[in-house]
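Render this sequence as a predicted structure.
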Amino acid sequence: MASRVPKQIGVIGASSCPPEIYELAREVGRDIARRGYILICGGLGGVMEAACRGAKEEGGLTVGIIPMAHKEGANPYVDVVIATDMGHARNVIIVHSSDGLVAVAGEEGTLSEIAIALKAGKPVVGLKSWDLGGRVPQASSPREAVERLVGAWG
C-alpha cells in the first residue's frame, strides 16, 4: 500500500554561502517542489533560505526545524516552523524527518547531518559537498541531485 504522506526531502548546508551556492540550493528547492515533495531544512539563512525560496517559487511546502526557541528566527520562506531550542542537536530531527537528503556544499554542521543520515540508513546526495570517500554520491547539477535521491528510494 502506497503511503498517502508525500516524501520529505531534507536540504542541508551552511547558514551563509556565496551566491553560486545560493543559486544551486535555490534550484534544488524548486525541483523538490515541482516533484510534489515537502522540503525539510534547518530553517535559517544561506543554503536553507535559498532552498526554501526556490520551493516557495514553485508553490511548494517548506518546513524549518530551527535551533532556537523562538519561531521568529526562521527565514521568511519557511511555512512551518519547528522551534526546538536544541542548537545543533536539532540536526538529528532534520535527518529523521527526511526520507533522504541533499547536501549543498556545507561546513561542519552539514557534515554532522550527513553522518547522522548515513548512520540511520537515509540516502544522501551531495552537490559540491562532502563525499566521505565515495559514501556520498555527488551530483553535477541540482536536478541530478534530486533525481539521484529519488532513484535511491527505488
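Summary. The radius of gyration is 14 Å. Helices lie at 19-34, 46-57, 90-97, 108-120, 142-152.
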